[in-house]
């Protein structure tokens, strides 16, 4: 069936990713490329594996997650954790303001979440963990978002209007509540008109 095929391919992808992380880990720790003119594992991987800088950097973050919390990479190699979940967890684990013991304790619950819930829900829980574990970073991010708030409403050539806006973490929910109230009123009015007709 299609489900079996897709699941099998995904398992292979996760296993291959775990193997790639193991290679990056080996390169990062042993640095066998030094005598060949490369100073970092990232530069070696970009050159020999034709990776982008972002991909090479991401693999090295994942390799460091593997060293810090080996059980995560074991779950990836066993096909129990997704590639995207691993990349996000590696980025969080690379945050220097998160204490190693806090990371180690939090990873266990996040590993369970990564295996049991959708990616969207895992992402929400992982980012909440990061914000709680790094309140300074969370405050800086919140301030950046507040400073970058913007809203533009423009009339289009056909007479319609478009709205584009970016909110901070406080303004977004407030706007959603107000906007939803107006959407609900419009729906109620349209519903009454339709039922009368």
Primary descriptors:
73% helix, 197 residues, 6% strand, elongated, 2 strands, mainly alpha
What would a concise description of this structure say?
The chain has helices spanning 2-30, 41-48, 53-68, 70-77, 83-93, 100-116, 119-133, 135-147, 171-196, and strands spanning 150-155, 161-166. Helix 1 packs antiparallel against helix 4 (70-77) and helix 5 runs parallel beside helix 7 (119-133).
Describe the protein.
By secondary structure, the protein is mostly helical. It has nine helices and two strands; from the N terminus they run H-H-H-H-H-H-H-H-E-E-H. The chain is 73% helix and 6% strand. The chain is elongated, with a radius of gyration of 23 Å.
List the helices and strands and how they pair.
Layout: H1 2-30, H2 41-48, H3 53-68, H4 70-77, H5 83-93, H6 100-116, H7 119-133, H8 135-147, E1 150-155, E2 161-166, H9 171-196
Antiparallel strand pairs: 1-2
What structural class results from the helix and strand content? mainly alpha
- The residue ranges in which pLDDT falls below 50 over 5 or more consecutive positions are none
Mean pLDDT: 88
Principal-axis shape: elongated
How many strands in all? 2
The amount of helix comes to: over 70%
| Topology pattern, helix = H, strand = E | HHHHHHHHEEH
What percent of residues are in strands? 5-15%
Widest β-sheet, arrangement of strands: 1-2
Assembly state (oligomeric) = single chain
Characterize the largest beta sheet: strand count, sense, and whether it forms a barrel: 2 strands, antiparallel
Distance, first to last CA: 48 Å
- Helix count equals 9
- Please tell me how large the radius of gyration is: 23 Å
